[in-house]
Amino acid sequence: MTWIPDGADENAIVSAAGAAGVRIGTVGAYRRSPGRPGLIFGYSALTERRIEAGVDQLTAALRLAGLDEPLTTGPGVTRNRGMAGSR
């Protein structure tokens, strides 16, 4: 799970990710009242190589959607490439 900047369109990001071959979900789908937008990832059945490829594909999709800011993985924590690490 990761937070995205306030005002970012979760559904547009999910659509852009899907077009890039990455399936993700939105935090909004589980929310009862308005709140901070976020994305949900499922990766337990993927190899590390597939996760790295997915992070690269998602990064490209986010840039196409106009979201160039780093994503946060929790209060005050910023990660540039998710679990895959940096190269």
Structure, explained:
This protein is α+β, with helices and mostly antiparallel strands and 87 residues long. The chain is 31% helix and 16% strand. It contains two helices and five strands. It has helices at 10-19, 48-64, and strands at 2-3, 25-26, 38-40, 71-74, 77-79. The strands form two sheets. A three-stranded antiparallel β-sheet has the order 1-3-2, covered by helices on one side. A two-stranded antiparallel ribbon has the order 4-5. β4 (71-74) and β5 form a beta hairpin. α1 (10-19) packs across α2. It is globular, with a radius of gyration of 12 Å. The model is unreliable at 76-87 (pLDDT under 50).
List keywords for this structure.
87 residues, alpha+beta, three-stranded antiparallel β-sheet, two-stranded antiparallel sheet, 5 strands, globular
Roughly what percent helix? 25-40%
H/I helix tally: 2
Stretches where pLDDT is under 50 for at least 5 consecutive residues are 76-87
Oligomer: single chain
Order of helices and strands: EHEEHEE
Determine the structural class based on helices, strands and strand pairing: alpha+beta
Number of strands: 5
Strand content: 15-25%
Largest sheet report: 3 strands, antiparallel
Chain-averaged pLDDT: 78
Shape: globular
Spatial strand sequence of the major β-sheet: 1-3-2
Radius of gyration: 12 Å
Q: Please give the alpha-carbon distance between the first and last residues.
A: 22 Å
